[in-house]
Amino acid sequence: MLINSSDFPFVWMNLAQEPGHDHEKDFAELEANLQRGEPFVLLTDTAPSDDHEHSPGEKKRTALWMKKHKVELRKRVLAMIMIEPNSAKRLGFKAFAVVFAKFWGYPLLLAASREQAMETARELLAKDGTSSH
């Protein structure tokens, strides 16, 4: 996954898996966003690939990192919004969203377009009272 925080509090993630990618860099970027002390929204227009299986080491590292940052994640990350134009695929992700929210502590929301995703993100931030975007 690649993280782009240049438009904070809108943090874009690319969930495509590239061979040899340094996940530590991703966790460091996410941690830096948590340390800002301000709520933010994660957005992505890439779905996790069906054929990528995380190694036991990756799964363990992710679980340990998540446990260490659980309180901050629940407090700072308002949601992850996944853009998926295909309505059938969006429907399929709804079941996954329940498991996702239990693990990460924030909701996985689905949007049909980038515009809809940004509108939802702005609404979440406005409800939280922290963004002028």
Describe the structure.
With 133 residues, this protein is α/β, with parallel strands linked by helices. The chain has one domain. Helices cover 50% and strands 20% of the residues. The protein has a five-stranded mixed beta sheet with strand order 1-2-3-4-5, sandwiched between helices. The model has no long low-confidence stretch (mean pLDDT 85).
Sequence-ordered SSE layout with sheet pairings:
Elements: E1 2-7, E2 10-14, H1 23-35, E3 40-44, H2 56-68, H3 70-76, E4 77-83, H4 87-104, E5 108-111, H5 114-128
Parallel strand pairs: 2-3, 3-4, 4-5
Antiparallel strand pairs: 1-2
Please name the defining characteristics of this protein.
five-stranded mixed β-sheet; alpha/beta; 20% strand; 5 helices; 133 residues
Summarize it.
Helices cover about 50% and strands about 20% of the residues.
